Structure formats: C-alpha cells, structure tokens
# Entry
Amino acid sequence: MDQEQINSTVHFATGLAVLGFISGMVSGIARMMTSSSKKPTYLPKIEKRKTTVTCPICGKVIEIAEYDSISRSEALKRHLEQARCELLASTAVPEHHSMWMTPEQRKECEKEAGAIACRWAEEFVAPGDFESAKKAARVFYDKMREAIGIA
# Structure
C-alpha cells in the first residue's frame, strides 16, 4: 500500500469513529432525557381558603360570598360596619356617643387593650354595653398590633 491509500483509510476510519462516538453520546443523552428513574414530583395540594369568618364581638359566623375578591378581614370589617349601622338604627342612639365608660371601666379596659383601642370601642358600641366594648377593644388592639407588625 502506498502512503496515499493509508492516509485515506485512516481519514475514513477516524471519521467513522468520530461519527459513532457522537451518535452514541446523542443517543445516551436522549435516553436520559426521555426516561426518568425518579418518580415525578407533584405540587402540594393547595387548600381552599375559608369562606367564613367568625365575628369576635357578636359571635356570628359570616359567610364570604365574594370569596376570591375579598379578604376575610375586609368581610369582617364590612360586617362590623353593618352591625354598627343596624345597632344605631335599632336603638336610635346618635352616632357620636363618646366617653360613656366610668373611670373604673376605662381603667379595666385600658389594662387589657390600651387607651386607643378602648376609646375606639367606646365609639363603636352602644353606651353602657361594657362587655361588648371590652371585646371590641381587644379586636382593635389586635388589629393595631397586626398593622404595625407586632404579633
């Protein structure tokens, strides 16, 4: 064999070897991509949000009709505003009925919920309803703490 024939045979064999190597790599990669030895992972089930909220003042369970467009807090706020309007209409009390707590009641309320929450509670509930005022003050106090990030 002459040199030219040996060179063409070596080039042919080298090309064939490279082609075989590349096709082997491609088929191995394709096999790895198509067959998985691990079980597929699924996203965790997302529980639906509660569609009700319980009023901490009157204990009434409020259903949230606009479930995706309104938060539980907003539904409770609307309920409290509506309950206050109904209370004012039924008792014929003027809207502004400030400072009706006795000093002893005020001291007890402020001890549990602070002065601001007690003052708001006085404005919110009917004059003389101290138990509801204490509950409302506690709710207002918790909401203030939540708003400023103190849990």
User: Anything to note?
Assistant: Strands lie at 52-54, 61-63. The mean pLDDT is 77. The radius of gyration is 37 Å. The first helix runs from residue 3 to 34.
